[in-house]
Every structure is written in C-alpha cells, then in structure tokens.
Design brief:
Order of helices and strands: HHEEHEEEEEHHHEEH
Strand order of the largest sheet: 8-7-6-9
Shape: globular
Strand content: 15-25%
Number of strands: 9
Number of helices: 7
Radius of gyration: 19 Å
Number of domains: 2
Structural class: alpha/beta
Largest sheet: 4 strands, mixed
Length: about 190
C-alpha cells in the first residue's frame, strides 16, 4: 500500500462527506470505491445510512493479502468523522433472502453445506453448498454462493475457505445446516492448526 495515499483518501472523504451523505448508499459506495482504487483496485466500500451515524465498511473482497491494508485505512480514520468505519464485512448471520436478476429467491437460512477434503492438503478448507436447481445453471453461481457465505459468516471467516463447490439440494439430507458453517471453520482451524 502506498502510505501517502491513506491521508489523501481521508482528505477526499472529508471534502466529499456532504455529497456522500445526501447520496443513496449505492452511489456513495461507488464513489468511495472509486477513490479506494487509488490505494488498491481490489478494495471496495459498503455504505449504510440506516443507523444514527452513517456506516462505512471497507472491504478487501476476501483477499487476505489486503486485510492489513484495510485495517491500516480504518486505523487512520480521522477523529470526529461521525461515521462508523469498519474493516471487512462483518458476520450478519444467514437470516436473509437473496434474489439475483429476477431469478428465484434463495432463503439462506435453509441452505446446507458439506465439508470437502483433499488428500493433497489436509489443512485446506473446502465446502460444498447446496443451492436450488434454478440457480445451479447460472454462470455466476459461485459468486452467489460466496456472497451468501460472506454475508453469513463475515469476510474474514469466509476467506478461510480455500475451495468452494455447489451442488443440488437433492440428496443432502445428511449435510450440515449453513448456520453451523462458522463453528465448523473454527473447529477445523483449531484441529488442523
């Protein structure tokens, strides 16, 4: 990370805060993401105006090598900004539905996953997530699965998954409920180091 870009980013943010605060959350996030690109093109922003203070989440988009960059950005947040600024997308649980491009809605809380193992690297973490058949044929099915996982367990925990597969919900009666994914990752990490 170019360290002189961090103060430049926050100065831009302070200068543009009035515009950001009257914009929609999506437009404001787009503007901030564009500015973050000067630090690293892979960074992005989420903005929410739902609480008393506006919230900015700076995301590394699951790229572990950028976690320190994101934390450094958050650590440099100007005093008195009156925004809640967080590093990485937090865990939000799986009590949500997702609809992509008018396709069938997916109730995330009803999904299941199955741990995957590889003999090549027993410490690596893999999972298969069961999705409705209507989603499986989409070109972006893995992106949808990643979004569900990242929303549920948070960006840091989701980045611990080394490989991801998707499967049809049929024949998954023995699979684990998606709500157990965070506990499974913790168990795997403590077991395998």
């Amino acid at each position: 990370m170019v360290t002189d870009m961090v103060p430049k980013f926050w100065q831009w943010f302070l200068d543009n805060r009035p515009t950001l605060e009257v914009s929609s959350a999506d437009i404001a996030a787009g503007l901030v993401t564009t500015e973050l690109a000067d630090i690293d093109l892979r960074l992005s922003a989420e903005i929410s105006f739902d609480d008393e203070e506006p919230e900015l989440i700076i995301s590394a988009n699951g790229i572990r090598e950028l976690f320190e960059t994101v934390q450094n950005l958050v650590d440099a947040t100007p005093v008195g900004l009156n925004w809640t600024v967080s590093a990485l997308k937090p865990p939000r649980g799986f009590n949500f539905e997702i609809t992509k491009d008018g396709s069938a809605s997916i109730d995330a809380s009803s999904l299941k996953f199955n741990p995957l193992k590889t003999s090549a690297d027993p410490q690596s973490v893999g999972i298969s997530i069961a999705l409705p058949r209507s989603i499986l044929n989409r070109a972006d099915v893995l992106d949808i699965a990643k979004l569900i996982i990242e929303t549920g367990i948070g960006e840091a925990a989701a980045s611990e998954i080394d490989f991801l597969d998707v499967a049809s919900v049929h024949g998954t009666d023995e699979w684990l409920p998606i709500e157990d994914l965070g506990r499974y990752l913790y168990w795997h990490k403590t077991r395998c180091g």
